[in-house]
Amino acid sequence: MNNLKAELLRGLWYVACTSEELKAGKTMAKKLMGEPVLFGRDRHGKAFAIRDICPHRGIPLRYGRFDGETVQCCYHGWKFDTSGTCVDIPSTHEYQTIDYSKISCGAFPVKEQQGLVWVYFADGTERPEDGRQPEPPLLPDFGLDQGPRLAIMLPFVCSVDHAALGLMDPTHAAFVHTSWWFKKNATKLRPKEKHFAPSELGWAMVRHKLPPQNIAYKLLGNDVTTEIRYSLPGLRIEHIKGDRHSVVGLTTITPVDEDKTEVRQMFWATMGWVSPFKPLLRRLMTTFLDQDRRVVIQQREGLEYNPKLMLINDADTQGRWWMQLKDEWTRSGSEGRDFQNPVRERTLRWMS
C-alpha cells in the first residue's frame, strides 16, 4: 500500500466506459490493466473489445479502418472481426494456403448493461462463466436498459490502491472537500458510528435512516434510508431509497496500469425532473472528484520516498479491509479454491 504501484487483480469485471461514449460504427482505444484495448460498436449496436495490436508486425489496430464489421490494419491491410479473428490477408496469393481462423489479435469479454460497458480481464485463459465473477454486478431498482442520468470521469495519477483508499476514507472530507457549499469548516467535527457487515466481494455500511431534516432527502419521500457497499475490483455503490423515489450513486476505479487509474462517478435516479439540473450537478460532481484527484497527486510526492505508512483503528479499518480482500483474492486464485471474505461484522466509530 505504501508503494507507488499496485498489484492489479484479474478474473474480474471492470467498467471501461459508459454506453454513450461508445458510438455506433466507431472504435475507441484505451489502455486498461496495462493492456492495449480497442473497443468498438458494430453496425448492429453490439459492443466488443479486441487487443489493440496487429499480430503481423505489432502496429496498433486503432490506426486502421473499421467498417462496422471488421478492423483493417493500416500497415498491410490484415482484417480482423469483432472477436479478434483474422478474416483476410490481402497479400495472400492463390497458391498460398493460410488458415485465417488460427490467427487472432486477441479479444476481451464485454458486457453492456445499465448504460455501462464492462470488460473482463481473465486470470489465465478462463472465460467469465468459468471464473469467480461470472457477471458484472447489477445496480438495485434499475433495469438493464436504464443508464446513468449523469456520469463523469477524471484520470488519477495514482495506483488503484490509493484511489480506493481515498474512495472509502470516512475522515478526509472535512479537509479535502472544502467548498462554500460543503464542509467549509474543518473544526466542526462530529462523532460518527456506523455498522458494517461483509457483502459480496467486499463489505457494506448496513442500511440506516438518514436525517429527516435534510431537504435533499425529502425529495425521495419519507423514511429515507441508505446503504453503501464497497467491493472488488474497486466499486462504491450507494443506494438511497425513500417511499417515493430512489437514487443510486456508483463510483468505479479502473486501473490504466500499475500507477494510473480512471475514476468515474455516476448516478441513477427514478425522478424524471433531474435533467434541467444536469449542468449544475455535473459542475458539483467534477469539483468534488477533482479535489480527490488533486490530493492523491500531492500524496505522490511523499510516496516517492517509500515511507512506512500508519493506519489507525476504525478510521482506517476499511482501508485494511481493502488490502485484505485483495490478498485473499490473489491467494484463493493461486490456490484454486473459493474466495473467503476476510471482513467480519463490526461497528466503527470516528470523527468527521
Question: Can you put this structure into words, describing what you see?
Answer:
With 352 residues, this protein is α+β, with helices and mostly antiparallel strands. It has 2 domains: 12-130, 3-layer Sandwich (Rieske Iron-sulfur Protein); 150-351, Naphthalene 1,2-dioxygenase Alpha Subunit, Chain A, domain 1, CATH 3.90.380. The protein contains 5 helices and 18 strands. The strands form 4 sheets. It has an 8-stranded antiparallel β-sheet with strand order 11-17-16-15-14-13-12-18, covered by helices on one side. The chain has a 4-stranded antiparallel β-sheet with strand order 5-6-7-8, with no helix packed on it. The longest helix has 26 residues, at 278-303. It is globular, with a radius of gyration of 22 Å. 30% of the residues are buried. The mean pLDDT is 93. Keywords: 2Fe-2S, Dioxygenase, Iron, Iron-sulfur, Metal-binding, Oxidoreductase. InterPro entries: Cholesterol_7-desaturase (IPR050584), Rieske_2Fe-2S (IPR017941), Rieske_2Fe-2S_sf (IPR036922), VanA_C_cat (IPR044043). This is Aromatic ring-hydroxylating dioxygenase subunit alpha. Residues 13-119 form the Rieske domain.
